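# nightly structure sweep
# worker-07 picked up a monomer target from the shared queue
# config: single-sequence mode, recycle default, output format = structure tokens
# input follows
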Amino acid sequence: MHLPTCFPSSARVWLVLGLPAILTLAGCTAIATTEPKVEVPTTVATQPVQATSTEAAHAQKFALWVNEFSATARQAGIREETLRIAFDPVRFLPGVIDLDRAQPEFTRPVWDYLDNALSAQRITRGQDKLQQLGPQAVAITARYGVPTEIVVAIWGMESNYGSNFGDIPTIDALATLGFEGRREVWARSQLLAALTILQSGDIDRTRMIGSWAGAMGQTQFLPSNFLAYAVDADGDGQRDLWGSEADVVASTANFLASSGWQAGQPWGTEVRLPPGFDYARADDDVRQTSTAWAQEGVQSMNGTQLPALTDSSIWLASTADGPAFLIGPNFRTILRYNNSTSYALAVSLLAQRLAGGPTVQAPWPRDLQALTRSQLLAMQTALNSRGFDSGTPDGMMGPATRRGIRQYQRSLGLPADGYPSLNLLQHLQQRSGTAP
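# output follows
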């Protein structure tokens, strides 16, 4: 698909849209152009001409947005040369908007996610990376108090150890998101940060690439996080998260350390819960020392003493019949890198495997079918209608929905694990009279 390309300057923008056009930004007016007259048979639709006209109008609006943003950037200290480098080749990317608006209907259960995240290939490549990095990487991560395995696991999750970190120009992606408007405030702040990075000389525009959402480099830093946490570990004068493995490792470790990583503490461990355990206590709001959990009968899978964790909680990744984990502050720090419990568990378990540790030992309830977003929306609506507050129905699983499910499970005398199963949805709909 051909994408329109805009080339702003201080005076005007050329729009490459399949027809010549010049727009004067200073006056925000279009200058008429002369097109060769084409004889169109009456039986041929003229829709392509109309579409081109629409594209031209859209591109004009995008160019004006870039011009307005440039004025804001100048006031923030961005130089003209930086603006020229950034915005002369800037393009509006429709695919970025499609991805931003897309909310997949089908969700993956955590065990499917982990099957891919903890594949034999990813573990083997990660162990090879650890060997290749050697003592230098260990020294770098030790400086920040973060285990090398954790950093390498994030590296593996974010870009498969640098083999795939995206190819979308960061400037284009963020300008597109800012212009579209749904997340304009956020996108504008990230775009300004990206311009600051360009101006600092850490990376040139052609190499500043990443995901459609503006995350960059081998461990997918947003521009604002780059400015705050990126480190020049190899001493070449640049913070290079695209080409320097030393910088990648040090910057990721610095992010975790600055986000609350507690040196010497593990992320957590898989545990065996005692008979009669109140599953409603498997909640991040219920925190205590691992010693206190041990006194309640919580055990490690191999019978050894639980790791010394402060402020720890029990977490169920699925149902009461699935694996249970004791998680501490460092698990929550990984969530600050990516606020997904499936992601945090994948990083934790991958690091554990890279260090020669075990995989999950308790079986996953693989026979359960994950709810689609529509089904979860129906569950939230039905819970609310019966007085079990699950927050505003949005088809997304969150703390409010989990609390509502637990309350409903308790009313039925079921283990209050908060898991949104299909059986529970069907039972809820039957009792609410909303079954399809």
